[in-house]
Amino acid sequence: MKKVFLSMMSILMVAMLCVGFASCSKDDDNAGSLAYDANNPIIGSWYHSEIDGSQENETLLLLYSNGKFKLLERVPYRHGGYEDVVVEGRYEYEDGTLYLTITKSNDSDFVVGNMLEMDVMSLNRNRLVVESYNDEYDDFVETSFVRTEQTSL
Questions:
Q1: Which of 13-27, 29-43, 60-74 has the lowest mean pLDDT?
Q2: Which range marks the domain in which residue 132 is found?
Q3: What is the pLDDT of residue 138?
Q4: CA spacing 20 to 30 A to 119: which of 1, 94, 143, 150?
Q5: Total tally of structural domains belonging to the chain
Q6: Strands, E assignment, 12-125
Q7: What are the backbone angles phi and psi of residue 33, rounded to the nearest 5°?
Q8: Is there a domain that residue 153 lies in?
Q9: Torsion sign (Cα): 64, 92, 107, 127
């Protein structure tokens, strides 16, 4: 009887450990959705493309439901090729303004700890239009994004 009891306890312990390990993934805390949410329409994957001369500059802005963002830019070089810029961080959207706080970047133009501020001029299910100050032009620049299913460039 004692052997049966110990066997049952062992099986029960293994089962409990399996359940415990399956529910304690650190990725669960970091997961965020890009799915459209009518209550928070800023969440999603937003794509922008512009032609500068004969070269196309592409931007993908991923705004996750957990308050994190990823900004991907494919910036062309003048003599061919391109650079892939990746910026990550946290965002807040309040009172018509989108605030992006940078926590990780592979480009010196996007300094960790800095905050980018964008006024949201228009937002609906399929389109996001923002205006932000551009140091290079010393003026405000309007950028229009369309919702996409893309998650990479």
A1: 13-27
A2: 44-148
A3: 83
A4: 150
A5: 1
A6: 44-52, 55-63, 68-76, 82-94, 97-105, 115-123
A7: -95, 150
A8: no
A9: positive
Structure-token match 């369309």, residue found? 146
Cα 123 to Cα 15, 33, 42, 114, 147: the distances in Å are: 48, 19, 7, 24, 10
- In this structure, are residues 82 and 71 in contact, taking their beta carbons and an 8 Å threshold? no
For 35, list phi and psi in degrees, rounded to 5.
Answer: -65, 145
Residue 106 lies in a domain: yes
CA distances from 65 to 42, 92, 130 (A): 9, 11, 19
**DSSP three-state, residue 34:** coil
Mean pLDDT of the chain: 82
pLDDT digits (tens, 9 = 90+) for 51-72: 877 778 899 999 999 999 999 9
Indicate whether 68 belongs to any domain. yes
Cα–Cα distance measured from residue 58 to residue 45, given in angstroms and rounded to the nearest whole number: 13
Q: What is the CATH number of the domain that holds 94?
A: 2.40.128.490
| C-alpha 68, offset from chain centre | 5
Could you tell me the two tokens for 102?
A: 């940078």
* Residue whose C-alpha is closest to residue 153's, from 68, 57, 17, 89: 57
In angstroms, the CA 90 to CA 113 distance is 10
User: Is residue 2 situated within a structural domain?
Assistant: no
One-letter identity of residue 138: D
